[in-house]
Design brief:
The structure holds two protein chains of two kinds. Chain A is built from 16 helices and no strands. In chain A, helix 8 packs across helix 9. Chain B has one domain. The chains are: A mainly alpha, B mainly alpha. At the A-B interface, helix 6, helix 13, helix 15 and helix 16 of A face helix 3, helix 4, helix 10 and helix 12 of B.
């Protein structure tokens, strides 16, 4: 018998955790001598009060959807992919190579192949730790952390020694050609008669991210592979007994996860910067962890949590602009969300389970 | 490369290996007791900030050290609460602690000092100065031995010597005391320890507390000895290199010292030479940056001797009923 109804598990626990994180964040804002209510108002105005704010919120949310899905898919197989950051960096490299060296006639074709390239590079970067976990028994968390650092070194090397135009000082690739410029939401919505801010970076990759959410839902709950992934995540021994190969599932799941993290690059590299720069990922790979935890590893949850974190990021930038609260407040909020929804989950869950059990006894 | 250059590189190896060594031993206590800790980085960062902040305000470096240790142990307590008391995921708790430290340090630094998330530069009394060994100056000109004694061995801060003394101390505690035996046992088979009537929770909290203490010293060393003050993200991945060293050393103290010296040497060489020319081949500096991580992956994969973590690492202990 379930200790509590499903809706409590899916909605109530994340909500309480979020409230706890928000309450503590408000205390932090109070402690540095600012007004939490004013801060929230500023964040809402800045991130959701204009199409410019929405444009940034959705741009960040696109990144977080990809990285959140990456963590969620791995989590269904019981694997903790902390290497989204490195996989997204490599995805950026894939996008840059495809955009720089192939003269695409139109952006649609370029986007299709850039998505594939980004996914392939990200998948390859995740495949090595996956293989080492499956075949050699090295802990995937440690190897993916190490691969984040190795990815940073690889990217640094490639940018400085290979992709940097000789005339430039900046460790960044050349600009991509204008023909493969991805349409922004402004350009997409104007023909429909909707006015959207011209300067916001949200672009067509938002639609790709939403499609990825749908695809992951289909994969996990509507395909045999998804069933095997979930079975393996619930019980490795059980899955083995049912004839599911642990090696196959570990490697395939991690490659899907890495591909999703890598695909983030079509948004930040191809859509926004239109060239590859150092630190293009800006920690989005790690935010994926918070997004997946908050979204309970469900694609729809990830979608909502990504928008929430997009709002926090854009709102936090506005706060840093207009008040004395540095952008790092967002990092603190992110830490608290990870802490309460992830590590301290039982702190909320156990009392709640007791309440539901007591309620049930009364009604019987 | 001449002899003096070699001595200088080794001297900076010792200085760069010290924070790695302290953090690595910190992780060793925690992981040997069965609590994975990827939050070493965050604890060091928090300690670095509070030690520099208190040293800057009071002008007393020892008070700074105490403040750093207290801050780090507070995060350790949080890690213990999440992973021991509430049986949460130890890895996720570590991730959260790293972000908490990265955010809070800058937030508080900006609020207290208004210098863009850093502390004021520390003056002499706010820092750990070099300890000069007896006769270091008069022996300086003796060939070979002179530079080794007065450059390499003498002239480090007290925390450097403390870190290297912590190695035999850790060995002795782990392998020659009752507490050490129980600590190792609780990481391998907590049920057996419980059956023997020893508190699993108490032991694990003790291990996590020692971890916080050592990370605190490591962070204080960074901000008040190696450098003069706190800057944003000043740990720069050292907590993860320490974690790598711990795996490289297969969770053993003397080997941990070896691994930390090796990784310290890599950092010192990268710092001094940038790209290295070996005949016709140039080793780019990025290879030196990535080498600790690559080596760890290779070791962990068991291609060069297998690294097997403590058996109950990462699993919360649930008492049988």
């Amino acid at each position: 018998m379930e200790k509590m109804p499903k809706w409590a598990d899916v909605v109530l626990i994340p909500l309480i955790s979020l409230l706890l994180a928000a309450g503590l964040s408000a205390l932090v804002i109070l402690a540095i001598g600012e007004d939490p209510a004013a801060a929230v108002k500023l964040m809402v105005d800045g991130a959701l009060g204009s199409s410019y704010g929405w444009g940034y919120t959705l741009y960040y949310a696109t990144n977080f959807m990809f990285t959140g899905l990456a963590v969620a898919v791995a989590a269904h197989a019981g694997l903790f992919n902390i290497g989204g950051e490195g996989q997204a960096m490599l995805g950026g490299l894939g996008v840059a190579l495809i955009c720089l060296f192939i003269p695409w006639p139109h952006w649609t074709l370029a986007l299709l192949f850039a998505t594939l390239g980004a996914g392939l590079f990200g998948a390859a970067w995740a495949a090595i730790p996956a293989y080492l976990q499956a075949k050699r028994g090295s802990h995937i968390v440690i190897t993916t952390i190490m691969f984040n650092f190795i990815a940073a070194a690889v990217l640094n090397y490639v940018l400085v020694n290979v992709l940097k135009p000789p005339s430039s000082m900046d460790p960044a690739s050349a600009r991509f050609s204008d023909t493969i410029h991805l349409p922004t939401l402004h350009e997409l919505l104007t023909p429909l008669g909707i006015a959207f801010s011209k300067s916001a970076p949200a672009n067509v990759s938002l639609l790709v991210a939403i499609a990825a959410c749908l695809a992951v839902w289909l994969l996990i709950w509507r395909t045999p592979l998804g069933f095997e992934i979930r079975a393996f995540g619930k019980s490795e021994a059980g899955a083995r007994y049912a004839g599911i190969s642990p090696v196959k599932i570990t490697i395939i799941t991690m490659m899907i996860s890495g591909a999703l993290a890598g695909m983030m690059a079509i948004n930040n590299v191809m859509g926004e910067a239109e060239r590859l720069v150092l630190n293009a990922t800006e920690g989005a790979g790690f935010i994926g962890i918070a997004v997946a935890l908050m979204g309970r590893n469900h694609p729809f949850g990830v979608f909502l949590a990504a928008i929430l974190f997009g709002f926090l990021y854009q709102g936090g930038a506005e706060l840093a602009l207009w008040t004395n609260i540095p952008r790092e407040l967002i990092v603190v909020i992110q830490a608290l969300v990870i802490l309460f929804t992830g590590a301290l989950d039982n702190m909320v869950r156990i009392p709640l389970e007791r309440i539901f059990l007591a309620l049930r006894k009364e009604s019987n | 490369m001449d002899f003096i250059t070699l001595i200088q590189v080794l001297d900076s190896t010792v200085r760069l290996a010290t924070p790695l060594l302290l953090a690595c031993l910190a992780g060793l206590y925690s992981e040997r007791a069965g609590i994975f800790d990827i939050g070493l980085e965050g604890k060091m960062l928090m300690a670095a900030f509070f030690s520099a902040a208190v040293a800057a305000v009071t002008g007393n470096v020892w008070l700074g050290l105490l403040a750093g240790i207290a801050a780090s142990m507070l995060l350790s307590a949080l890690h213990g609460l999440a992973s021991i008391t509430f049986r949460g995921n130890q890895l996720i708790s570590g991730v959260a602690i790293n972000f908490l430290a990265a955010g809070l340090t800058v937030l508080i630094a900006q609020d207290w000092f208004k210098q863009g998330g850093r502390t004021p530069s520390l003056l002499t009394e706010g820092r750990f100065g070099p300890l000069t060994f007896p006769f270091a100056d008069s022996l300086r000109d003796v060939p070979i031995f002179g530079p080794i004694y007065s450059e390499l061995l003498s002239g480090h801060s007290i925390l450097v010597y403390l870190a290297f003394l912590a190695v035999p101390a850790t060995w002795w505690i782990l392998y020659r005391t009752r507490f050490g035996l129980r600590l190792r046992a609780v990481g391998e088979n907590p049920a057996a320890v419980d059956t023997a009537g020893v508190s699993v929770i108490g032991l694990r909290f003790a291990a996590v507390a020692i971890c916080g203490l050592l990370c605190g010293i490591a962070g204080a060393y960074l901000a008040t000895a190696l450098q003069a003050g706190f800057v944003k993200d000043m740990t720069a991945g050292r907590g993860f290199i320490a974690l790598a060293a711990l795996i490289f050393a297969k969770w053993r103290p003397w080997q941990a010292m070896g691994a930390c010296l090796l990784f310290g040497l890599l950092q010192a060489v990268a710092l001094r030479f940038q790209n290295i020319e070996l005949g016709s081949v140039t080793i780019p500096v990025q290879v030196m940056d990535a080498l600790p991580y690559i080596l760890t992956v290779v070791i962990l994969a068991g291609f060069v001797g297998k690294a097997i973590p403590p058996r109950s690492g990462g699993e919360p202990y649930v008492k049988e009923r």
